[in-house]
Amino acid sequence: MTLAVRKRIAPPGRRGRPAAVEPEEEGTRERILTVAERLFAERGFNGVSLRTLTAEAGVNLASVGYHFDSKEGLIAAIFDRRCRPMMQERLRLLAACAEGPGRPPMLEQIIEAFVLPAISQTADVAGGGATFTRLRAVLRHENSELARKLIAENFDETSARFVDALHRCLPRLSRDAIHWRFHFLLSALYYTTIDPGRIRHLSGGRCDPADTKVAVRELVRFVAAGFRAD
Amino acid sequence: MTLAVRKRIAPPGRRGRPAAVEPEEEGTRERILTVAERLFAERGFNGVSLRTLTAEAGVNLASVGYHFDSKEGLIAAIFDRRCRPMMQERLRLLAACAEGPGRPPMLEQIIEAFVLPAISQTADVAGGGATFTRLRAVLRHENSELARKLIAENFDETSARFVDALHRCLPRLSRDAIHWRFHFLLSALYYTTIDPGRIRHLSGGRCDPADTKVAVRELVRFVAAGFRAD
DNA sequence: GTCTATACAGTGATAGAC
DNA sequence: GTCTATCACTGTATAGAC
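ok -> C-alpha cells follow
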C-alpha cells in the first residue's frame, strides 16, 4: 500500500513573502475546492466520501455543509469557479470580433473566440485546468444526469450566444444546419482536450494537441471550412 | 440487495423450431460475453467482480478462465466480437469506393465508409451496439491504459488504411494535415455517438443524432468540407 | 472439450491492543 | 497515534466430473 497517510503539511506561512494577489493565501473554502476537484477527477463523484475529502484537505467535515450546503453544492461551486472566467473570456473575445483589413474572416474569429479559452484552460496543468477537464469527462460517464445539469447551467447561455453569432455570420444556413455544425465544433474541441493521445499515437507522435498554437490553428481551419460547406 | 440469483433458465431448446443460422441457441461463451458487456458498461471494468458477473450470467466462476483465460481476456473478446464485423464492414465499403458518374465525390465516399458502420452499430440498441459504445467510453475514463491498448489493437490497422486512402484522395495535403483532419473526423464520430443529448438539448430537440440518416449526411458534409480546407 | 467445485494468494478496510 | 490480527473480497489456478 502506497497510501502513507500524507500528514497535513504545515502551510507555507507568510514568512517574508509579500501579500499575494489573492485575498488570502489559502482559505478553507479554496482548499476544499482544490482538493475536491482533484479527488473527484481521480475517483469520480460517488467514489469520494466527504470524510476522506475533508480529511485529505485537513478541514472539518462540517465545513463542506457550511460553505457549499451539500456535496452537489460543492461540485456546482467547482464548476462555477472554472467556468465563469472561461465564459467571460469567451464573451470578451466574441465582443472583440470585427471585420477589418488584415484580420481573419469573421467566421474564423468567432470560432477562435470559442475554442481558445477552453484549450488554454486545459493546457494550464499547473492551474488545475487539466484536472477540471478530466473531472467533466469522468462525471459525464459516472453520473450523466448531474453532469447534464451542470453543463447546461454553465455552458448553455454562452453557447446560445455563439450559435447566434455564427448564424449572423452565415445567414443563408438554416438554424438546424448551424446547430449541427456547432455540434461538430464542440466535438473537435471536446475530443482534442479529452483524448490527445489518440492522434499522437496514430501520427507516430508528429501531431500533438499539447502544442496549443498548432491545435487551435488546425481546429479553426478545419471547422471554419466545415461551416462553409455547400 | 436485489440480486435474486436468477437461476439459470433452461435454454429455450429446439422444440419445433427450425435450425437457426447461429450454430447454437446461446452457449456459455456468448452468455458471458453479453452479460459482461452490459455490466462493464454499467459499472465499469473494476466495478464488476467475476463472481457477480458469473452469478448474473448463471454460469460457473471458472468458466471465465476456461473460455477467456483472464478478466482482461474477457474484455478483449468483447472488443473483438464488436469490432471485427465493424472493421470488416468499413474495409468492404472502402474497397467499394470508386469514382463514377452519378456517384458522390471520392472523399465523401471514403468518409461515409468510415462513419456509417460505427453509427449503425451504435444505433442498433437491440443488438447491443449502444451498450458497447458506452462501454468504450466508460473504460476510457476508468482504466485508460487498458482502453488505449484495446483501441489500438482493434482500430489502428483500419484507421491507417483510411488515412492512406484519404491522403491518396488529397495528395496536396501534408501527412500531418491529413492526421489532424482525421482526428477531427474521429471527434465528430465519437462525440455524436457518445453524447447525442447535448445537441438535442441545444437545438431544442430539432437536431437528433438518433436519426442516423440525417446524422451521417450532416457529418459527411461537414467533415468533407473540412478536409478540403485551403 | 466443456464445465464444476474448490483452493490459493493477494488486496483494502477495520477493529482492538498497545 | 501506531501496529497488528482479522475479515471480506478479489482474480487466478487446478483437479476432476461429465
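Residues 28, 59-63, 66-67 of chain B lie near DNA strand C (CB under 10 Å from a C1').
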